[in-house]
Design goal:
Layout: E1 3-8, H1 21-29, E2 34-37, H2 50-56, H3 58-68, E3 72-78, H4 85-92, E4 96-97, E5 102-117, E6 120-127, E7 130-134, E8 140-143, E9 150-156, E10 165-166, H5 178-184
Antiparallel strand pairs: 1-6, 2-7, 3-9, 4-10, 5-6, 5-7, 5-8, 5-9
Length: about 180
């Protein structure tokens, strides 16, 4: 189940966790974050490659590409037994921004976005069927957990794909990681 939990930037929890998708979407829309529930019922093999994932969701990929004028897309998929899972996880755990907005469509598993907005940090647990679009310039980070198990289609308006501009802040160290947060839900 998708969930949104609000914290103060100091790391102190600031409210209840929202679990209703419409409430989460409305809360995020107020800060310019698009959050939608899409159909996610295409059968995929556990070892499906990028081409198979995109083919399964071709209509969604084409619709979103036309809406945003995307230049490219890719598929990121990690499983608990991936030999480089710790390195992949570490890449996204530090606060960063993008010149481009970050759009992900989760077609399997789940991951946790941390959105740093003014003096608040919103923890957004995304699961299969969730589409999230984080506006350009929004400080954030992402945690896939110590045993990652997710598949996302990522979309880019720039040809270079994912390019993070790291803030150098240690803010991420003040918050529960994916595994700790999921235990509290």
């Amino acid at each position: 189940m998708s969930a949104l939990t609000l914290y103060h930037a100091t790391g102190e929890r600031a409210g209840e966790t929202l679990r209703d998708h419409a409430e989460i979407s409305a809360q995020l829309a107020a800060i310019g974050v698009r959050f939608e529930r899409w159909q996610c019922d295409q059968p995929l093999a556990a070892d499906a490659d990028s081409a198979a994932v995109v083919a399964a969701y071709r209509a969604d990929v084409d619709r979103l590409t036309a809406e945003y004028a995307f230049q490219s897309h890719d598929v990121v998929s990690l499983r608990p037994d991936h030999p480089d899972r710790a390195a992949f996880r570490a890449k996204f755990l530090n606060e960063h921004t993008h010149a481009d907005f970050e759009v992900r469509f989760f077609v399997g598993g789940r991951g946790l976005f941390y959105l740093h907005i003014d003096q608040q940090v919103l923890l957004l647990l995304c699961e299969a069927g969730d589409l999230v679009s984080v506006p350009a310039g929004t400080p954030h980070w992402f945690d896939m957990g110590s045993a990652p198990d997710f598949t996302c289609i990522r979309f880019f308006t720039i040809a270079d794909g994912w390019v993070g501009d790291f803030t150098g802040s240690d803010i991420a160290s003040r918050f529960p990681d994916f595994d700790q947060h999921v235990e509290t839900l």
